[in-house]
Amino acid sequence: MLVLLQAAGTGKGSPGGMMSLLLPFILMFVVMYFLILRPQKKKEKERKALLSRIRKNDKVVTAGGIHGVITSVRENEVVIRIDDSKDVKIKVDRNSVVTVLEASQEDETEEDAQATASENKEGESKEKK
Questions:
Q1: What CATH topology corresponds to 55-128?
Q2: What is residue 86's three-state secondary structure?
Q3: For residues 20, 24, 29 and 34, what is the CA-based torsion angle, rounded to 10 degrees?
Q4: Residue 118: pLDDT above 60?
Q5: Which residues contact 33 (CB under 8 A, 6 or more apart)?
Q6: Residue 94 above 50 pLDDT?
Q7: In 3D, which of 83, 111, 84, 80 has the Cα closest to residue 97?
Q8: In the chain, what are the domain boundaries?
Q9: 3-class DSSP state for residue 53?
Q10: For 83, which of 37, 88, 100, 119 could close a Cys bridge (C-beta 3.0–4.6 Å)?
Q11: Short-list 64, 74, 68, 103, CA closest to 86
Q12: pLDDT of amino acid 104
């Protein structure tokens, strides 16, 4: 701060003197953006996508380390079955799901069927042309 005041107060010096003092701060901000802010936004976007894809019968791990299978999905909460033999279920916040270990087979077959159907439609439209 003192350097900036001295540079501004002297009035003498090179015309780019103030710019040369600000250049390291600008470069530091650009580097921080590419090393910290941008990857963080990317991770946040991936997390939102993960939470939006949560379906019934997915095997998940919560933030507390609890492993289970999703039995019900609501807007902001998820019911997870922890033990099949005793039918132990807990209700947790949707944001507490950290990892989806195994997606349910029903969802994968539906997605595969939709992808195949869209490919067939595209192929038919190309053949007609």
A1: SH3 type barrels. (2.30.30)
A2: coil
A3: 120
A4: no
A5: none
A6: yes
A7: 80
A8: 2-50, 55-128
A9: coil
A10: 88
A11: 68
A12: 78
As a whole number of angstroms, the distance between CA 101 and CA 60 comes to 5
Give the tens place of pLDDT for each residue, 3-13.
555 555 555 55
Binning pLDDT at 50, 70 and 90, where does residue 20 land?
Answer: confident
Tokens of 43: 């991770």
Please tell me which residue, 107 or 14, carries the higher pLDDT value: 14
- Closest by CA position to 92, among listed 120, 58, 64, 114: 64
Residue 129 is predicted with a pLDDT of: 46
C-alpha span between 68 and 27 (Å, rounded): 47
Of 51 and 106, the one with more pLDDT:
51
Q: What is the pLDDT of residue 18?
A: 81
Backbone torsions φ then ψ of 68, nearest 5 degrees: -170, -175
Q: To the nearest 5 percent, what fractions of the chain are helix, strand and coil?
A: 55, 25, 20
